[in-house]
Protein backbone atom coordinates (compact mmCIF):
# COMPACT_ATOMS: atom_id res chain seq x y z
CA UNK A 1 0.00 0.00 0.00
CA UNK A 2 1.36 3.38 -1.01
CA UNK A 3 1.43 5.97 1.74
CA UNK A 4 1.05 9.57 0.56
CA UNK A 5 2.69 12.09 2.82
CA UNK A 6 1.49 15.68 2.24
CA UNK A 7 4.19 18.19 1.51
CA UNK A 8 4.96 21.06 3.86
CA UNK A 9 3.33 23.48 1.40
CA UNK A 10 0.13 21.44 1.26
CA UNK A 11 0.05 21.18 5.05
CA UNK A 12 0.50 24.94 5.30
CA UNK A 13 -2.39 25.58 2.89
CA UNK A 14 -4.72 23.33 4.91
CA UNK A 15 -3.63 25.01 8.14
CA UNK A 16 -4.18 28.49 6.69
CA UNK A 17 -7.63 27.53 5.42
CA UNK A 18 -8.59 26.37 8.90
CA UNK A 19 -7.37 29.64 10.37
CA UNK A 20 -9.27 31.72 7.81
CA UNK A 21 -12.39 29.66 8.50
CA UNK A 22 -11.89 30.35 12.21
CA UNK A 23 -11.57 34.08 11.48
CA UNK A 24 -14.78 33.85 9.45
CA UNK A 25 -16.58 32.14 12.32
CA UNK A 26 -15.39 34.79 14.79
CA UNK A 27 -16.72 37.53 12.49
CA UNK A 28 -20.13 35.82 12.31
CA UNK A 29 -20.20 35.38 16.10
CA UNK A 30 -19.38 39.07 16.54
CA UNK A 31 -22.27 40.11 14.28
CA UNK A 32 -24.79 37.79 15.97
CA UNK A 33 -23.66 38.84 19.43
CA UNK A 34 -23.99 42.56 18.63
CA UNK A 35 -27.51 42.06 17.25
CA UNK A 36 -28.64 40.29 20.44
CA UNK A 37 -26.82 42.78 22.67
CA UNK A 38 -28.32 45.70 20.76
CA UNK A 39 -31.88 44.41 21.06
CA UNK A 40 -31.57 43.77 24.80
CA UNK A 41 -29.79 47.07 25.54
CA UNK A 42 -32.17 49.28 23.55
CA UNK A 43 -35.22 47.50 25.00
CA UNK A 44 -34.15 47.86 28.63
CA UNK A 45 -32.63 51.28 27.96
CA UNK A 46 -36.10 52.52 26.99
CA UNK A 47 -37.91 50.65 29.79
CA UNK A 48 -35.49 51.80 32.52
CA UNK A 49 -35.00 55.27 30.99
CA UNK A 50 -31.21 54.92 31.04
CA UNK A 51 -29.55 56.83 28.21
CA UNK A 52 -26.19 55.09 28.66
CA UNK A 53 -27.67 51.61 28.13
CA UNK A 54 -29.81 52.84 25.24
CA UNK A 55 -26.79 54.44 23.59
CA UNK A 56 -24.75 51.28 24.20
CA UNK A 57 -27.44 49.31 22.33
CA UNK A 58 -27.40 51.70 19.38
CA UNK A 59 -23.62 51.41 19.29
CA UNK A 60 -24.01 47.62 19.04
CA UNK A 61 -26.24 48.02 15.96
CA UNK A 62 -23.64 50.26 14.30
CA UNK A 63 -21.05 47.60 15.10
CA UNK A 64 -23.22 45.13 13.15
CA UNK A 65 -22.79 47.23 9.99
CA UNK A 66 -19.05 47.37 10.64
CA UNK A 67 -19.08 43.62 11.29
CA UNK A 68 -20.52 42.87 7.86
CA UNK A 69 -17.74 44.94 6.31
CA UNK A 70 -15.15 42.95 8.26
CA UNK A 71 -16.83 39.67 7.31
CA UNK A 72 -16.70 40.66 3.65
CA UNK A 73 -13.05 41.69 4.05
CA UNK A 74 -12.11 38.29 5.52
CA UNK A 75 -13.85 36.44 2.67
CA UNK A 76 -12.06 38.64 0.11
CA UNK A 77 -8.61 38.18 1.63
CA UNK A 78 -9.20 34.44 2.11
CA UNK A 79 -10.15 34.02 -1.55
CA UNK A 80 -7.88 36.34 -3.47
CA UNK A 81 -6.58 39.24 -1.39
CA UNK A 82 -6.59 42.54 -3.24
CA UNK A 83 -7.62 46.00 -2.08
CA UNK A 84 -10.86 47.14 -0.48
CA UNK A 85 -13.83 47.00 -2.83
CA UNK A 86 -16.97 49.15 -3.04
CA UNK A 87 -18.88 47.07 -0.47
CA UNK A 88 -16.23 47.53 2.20
CA UNK A 89 -15.82 51.25 1.50
CA UNK A 90 -19.58 51.86 1.62
CA UNK A 91 -19.85 49.85 4.86
CA UNK A 92 -17.09 51.97 6.38
CA UNK A 93 -18.75 55.23 5.31
CA UNK A 94 -22.15 54.15 6.67
CA UNK A 95 -20.46 53.03 9.90
CA UNK A 96 -18.57 56.31 10.24
CA UNK A 97 -21.63 58.50 9.65
CA UNK A 98 -23.73 56.38 12.01
CA UNK A 99 -21.17 56.72 14.79
CA UNK A 100 -21.05 60.50 14.29
CA UNK A 101 -24.84 60.75 14.51
CA UNK A 102 -24.88 58.51 17.58
CA UNK A 103 -22.18 60.59 19.33
CA UNK A 104 -24.06 63.83 18.61
CA UNK A 105 -27.38 62.36 19.80
CA UNK A 106 -25.87 61.01 23.03
CA UNK A 107 -24.28 64.35 23.90
CA UNK A 108 -27.49 66.31 23.27
CA UNK A 109 -29.63 63.81 25.21
CA UNK A 110 -27.18 63.63 28.11
CA UNK A 111 -26.92 67.41 28.42
CA UNK A 112 -30.71 67.70 28.33
CA UNK A 113 -31.10 65.04 31.04
CA UNK A 114 -28.56 66.82 33.22
CA UNK A 115 -30.36 70.13 32.67
CA UNK A 116 -33.81 68.81 33.67
CA UNK A 117 -32.43 66.50 36.35
CA UNK A 118 -33.82 63.34 34.78
CA UNK A 119 -32.49 60.03 36.10
CA UNK A 120 -33.01 56.34 35.23
CA UNK A 121 -35.51 54.09 36.98
CA UNK A 122 -32.77 51.47 37.34
CA UNK A 123 -29.38 50.63 35.83
CA UNK A 124 -29.37 46.99 36.89
CA UNK A 125 -29.59 45.80 33.30
CA UNK A 126 -26.72 48.10 32.41
CA UNK A 127 -24.59 46.23 34.93
CA UNK A 128 -25.68 42.82 33.64
CA UNK A 129 -25.21 43.68 29.96
CA UNK A 130 -21.83 45.32 30.53
CA UNK A 131 -20.43 42.38 32.52
CA UNK A 132 -21.52 39.90 29.84
CA UNK A 133 -20.09 42.20 27.16
CA UNK A 134 -16.72 42.52 28.93
CA UNK A 135 -16.37 38.74 29.14
CA UNK A 136 -17.44 38.30 25.49
CA UNK A 137 -15.16 41.05 24.17
CA UNK A 138 -12.16 39.64 26.05
CA UNK A 139 -12.78 36.23 24.47
CA UNK A 140 -13.27 37.64 20.97
CA UNK A 141 -10.26 39.95 21.24
CA UNK A 142 -7.96 37.13 22.35
CA UNK A 143 -9.29 34.70 19.71
CA UNK A 144 -9.00 37.24 16.87
CA UNK A 145 -5.50 38.27 17.94
CA UNK A 146 -4.39 34.63 18.02
CA UNK A 147 -5.73 33.95 14.51
CA UNK A 148 -4.38 37.22 13.14
CA UNK A 149 -0.86 36.56 14.40
CA UNK A 150 -0.82 32.98 13.12
CA UNK A 151 -1.97 34.18 9.69
CA UNK A 152 0.39 37.17 9.85
CA UNK A 153 -2.64 39.26 8.88
CA UNK A 154 -2.58 42.95 9.81
CA UNK A 155 -6.30 43.14 8.99
CA UNK A 156 -7.32 40.48 11.54
CA UNK A 157 -4.96 41.87 14.19
CA UNK A 158 -6.42 45.35 13.60
CA UNK A 159 -9.93 43.96 14.03
CA UNK A 160 -8.83 42.39 17.32
CA UNK A 161 -7.44 45.74 18.45
CA UNK A 162 -10.71 47.46 17.53
CA UNK A 163 -12.51 45.04 19.86
CA UNK A 164 -10.69 46.85 22.66
CA UNK A 165 -12.88 49.88 21.98
CA UNK A 166 -15.98 47.74 22.57
CA UNK A 167 -14.35 46.63 25.81
CA UNK A 168 -13.82 50.26 26.87
CA UNK A 169 -17.46 51.05 26.07
CA UNK A 170 -18.56 48.13 28.24
CA UNK A 171 -16.37 49.34 31.10
CA UNK A 172 -17.86 52.84 30.87
CA UNK A 173 -21.37 51.39 30.95
CA UNK A 174 -20.48 49.19 33.93
CA UNK A 175 -18.93 52.03 35.96
CA UNK A 176 -21.72 54.53 35.28
CA UNK A 177 -24.41 51.91 35.99
CA UNK A 178 -22.75 50.81 39.23
CA UNK A 179 -22.32 54.40 40.43
CA UNK A 180 -25.98 55.15 39.80
CA UNK A 181 -27.15 52.00 41.60
CA UNK A 182 -24.99 52.91 44.61
CA UNK A 183 -25.61 56.67 44.85
CA UNK A 184 -28.85 57.09 42.82
CA UNK A 185 -27.46 60.25 41.20
CA UNK A 186 -28.75 60.64 37.63
CA UNK A 187 -25.64 62.53 36.52
CA UNK A 188 -23.66 59.30 36.50
CA UNK A 189 -25.88 57.80 33.77
CA UNK A 190 -25.58 60.95 31.64
CA UNK A 191 -21.82 61.18 32.16
CA UNK A 192 -21.52 57.53 31.14
CA UNK A 193 -23.46 58.32 27.95
CA UNK A 194 -21.08 61.20 27.20
CA UNK A 195 -18.18 58.74 27.62
CA UNK A 196 -19.88 56.45 25.10
CA UNK A 197 -20.26 59.45 22.77
CA UNK A 198 -16.51 60.11 22.93
CA UNK A 199 -15.64 56.58 21.82
CA UNK A 200 -18.44 56.58 19.22
CA UNK A 201 -16.97 59.72 17.68
CA UNK A 202 -13.51 58.13 17.75
CA UNK A 203 -14.82 54.99 16.02
CA UNK A 204 -16.61 57.12 13.44
CA UNK A 205 -13.43 59.04 12.65
CA UNK A 206 -11.44 55.82 12.26
CA UNK A 207 -14.08 54.31 9.98
CA UNK A 208 -14.02 57.39 7.73
CA UNK A 209 -10.20 57.32 7.61
CA UNK A 210 -10.27 53.65 6.63
CA UNK A 211 -12.79 54.38 3.87
CA UNK A 212 -10.26 56.83 2.42
CA UNK A 213 -7.49 54.24 2.68
CA UNK A 214 -5.70 55.93 5.56
CA UNK A 215 -4.28 54.02 8.50
CA UNK A 216 -5.59 54.70 11.99
CA UNK A 217 -5.16 53.55 15.55
CA UNK A 218 -7.03 50.28 15.49
CA UNK A 219 -7.24 49.44 11.83
CA UNK A 220 -5.27 48.36 8.84
CA UNK A 221 -6.81 46.64 5.88
CA UNK A 222 -3.75 44.97 4.49
CA UNK A 223 -3.76 41.18 4.22
TrEMBL record:
Domain Cation efflux protein transmembrane span(s) in chain numbering: 31-208
UniProt cross-references to Gene3D superfamilies, sorted A to Z: Cation efflux protein transmembrane domain
Topology term for the membrane: Multi-pass membrane protein
UniProt keywords, alphabetically: Cytoplasmic vesicle, Endosome, Membrane, Synapse, Transmembrane, Transmembrane helix, Zinc
Pfam families given in the database record: Cation_efflux (PF01545)
A GO molecular-function annotation: monoatomic cation transmembrane transporter activity
Localization annotation: Cytoplasmic vesicle, Secretory vesicle, Synaptic vesicle membrane; Early endosome membrane
Record's GO cellular component terms: cytoplasmic vesicle; membrane
Transmembrane segments: 23-46, 52-71, 92-115, 121-141, 162-179
Predominant localisation class: membrane
Residue runs in coiled coils: none
Family stated for the protein in its record: Belongs to the TMEM163 family.
Protein name: Cation efflux protein transmembrane domain-containing protein
Source organism per UniProt: uncultured Desulfobacterium sp
Lineage: Bacteria, Pseudomonadati, Thermodesulfobacteriota, Desulfobacteria, Desulfobacterales
Amino acid sequence: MKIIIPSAAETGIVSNNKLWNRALLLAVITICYNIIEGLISVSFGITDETVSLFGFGLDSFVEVVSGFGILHMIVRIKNNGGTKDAFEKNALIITGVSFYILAFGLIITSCYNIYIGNKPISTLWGIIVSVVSIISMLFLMKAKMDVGRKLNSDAIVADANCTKTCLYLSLILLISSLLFEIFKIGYFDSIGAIGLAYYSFKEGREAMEKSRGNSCTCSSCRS
